[in-house]
Specification:
This protein is mostly helical. It has one domain. It has five helices and two strands. The chain has a two-stranded antiparallel ribbon.
């Protein structure tokens, strides 16, 4: 399996070149731009742009964190955690693609400027930079596979 590494922006750019507005997912209901905007929003919750809201952690959050962050277990296909937004935020796929890359740069800068900061994940609890990199890698890999950008 080819995993995405969010610390390698050149690799992400190379993969995103192959994503077009008419690229169909191999599974699920997202369109290409919806997927990019979903990743943007998730990164914004970890780079200081948006503040995650504590809605109460599940009782097994520590076990979930261990299973999903620290293992090679894949995110299951067709996992739905909420509804897709009714409309797109960005004017086109290229604009969204550039915004995703900018949000990732902001993510890394945020943790450089705030060493040791912990940010809440709604299902796993507080996570540090290393844990967020692991989780974002897994999440990006899931969606890149969904659109055939990686194996």
């Amino acid at each position: 399996m080819e995993a995405v590494d969010i610390t390698d922006s050149d690799h992400i750019k190379e993969k995103l070149i192959y994503l077009n507005a008419d690229t169909l997912p191999l599974w699920g209901n997202m369109a290409a731009q919806q997927m990019i905007e979903h990743l943007i929003e998730q990164v914004q919750y970890t780079n200081g742009v948006k503040v995650p809201v504590d809605t109460g952690l599940p009782a097994d959050y520590a076990e979930r964190k261990q299973r999903w962050v620290y293992t090679d277990e894949l995110i299951p296909r067709n996992l739905v955690l909420g509804q897709l937004p009714d409309k797109l935020t960005y004017t086109g796929l290229e604009t969204a693609r550039q915004q995703l890359l900018a949000e990732l740069e902001t993510f890394h800068a945020y943790y450089r400027a705030n060493p040791g900061i912990m940010v809440l994940h709604g299902g796993f609890g507080m996570m540090d930079y290393h844990e967020w990199v692991l989780w974002h890698n897994k999440h990006f890999t899931h969606h890149f596979k969904q659109f055939g950008l990686t194996q």
